[in-house]
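User: Can you help me understand a structure? I only have the sequence.
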Amino acid sequence: MNNLICWHNNNFKSIADVSVSILDFGFIHSDATYDVMKTKNQNILFYQKHLNRYTDSCKYFGFTPISNIDTIAKDLLEKNNLDDAFVWVCNWRGTPPSGSPRDMTAIEHQVVYVKPYYNISNDKVSLTLDYNNRRVSDKSYPQRYKNFGWIELTKAQKYADAQNLTSALVLDYNGFVTEGPGFGVCIVKNKQVYTPSENVLGSVTIEVVEDICRDLQIQFTRKPITPIELYNADTVFICSTSGGITEVAKVDHKEYDENNVVIKQLQAHYNAYY
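Assistant: Let's start by predicting it. Here is the structure, written out as tokens:
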């Protein structure tokens, strides 16, 4: 990875030459925002949706959006001899001149880099519900904006690892299902699709699922989802930039229908066009 070329503060350079100080606000305070996009045949999928989310995140956290991300990414794909890849875009605060944690005058950093594509899972996805590590509420800061505040998600992943499962879903403080480390979740019940409405990232892939449901005249609803509703669903799938629409084999004790017609329709439509 260290031999990759990235774009940092208007210059192309080796990714090994981009470093973050231990005094950096992006590191010590998570004063940063980012987005991750996927390319196919050197084109960014759902670019406008990602750009909208990234721009909104920059506005909320007080950063300057990088312009011409698509052009920069294309140059990076060529320089790194990559085709299907991830494009990472990140802004962070930098080191405050005075060293004070209240000094917001640090120079902002911007970076775009690409790295080889990998799927979220090469096996059937098995999840658990983590009742201990609760999701940070939208009332603290809106989770629809991309941020590095992943403590509860990281602990949830460790919880899943201890059980030899793919990953975990985190609940909020009201006991509703939210999302997992790097993915959103949808359930299918009676040929209708539901996804959590609160305390979740503004998932681009779930937006695409909503678009597909509209095209296929499948009812799509954003609402609070209880663990019981999750367990009693006909089937469950997760949504991510890395995996698209990924079917879930089981959550805890509940195994799901692997031949659900709604998921097959969504996956076929997604794969055919994207």
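Now, to help you interpret it: The longest helix spans residues 47-61. Residues 125-273 form a domain with the D-amino Acid Aminotransferase; Chain A, domain 2 fold (CATH 3.20.10.10). Let me know which part you'd like to focus on.
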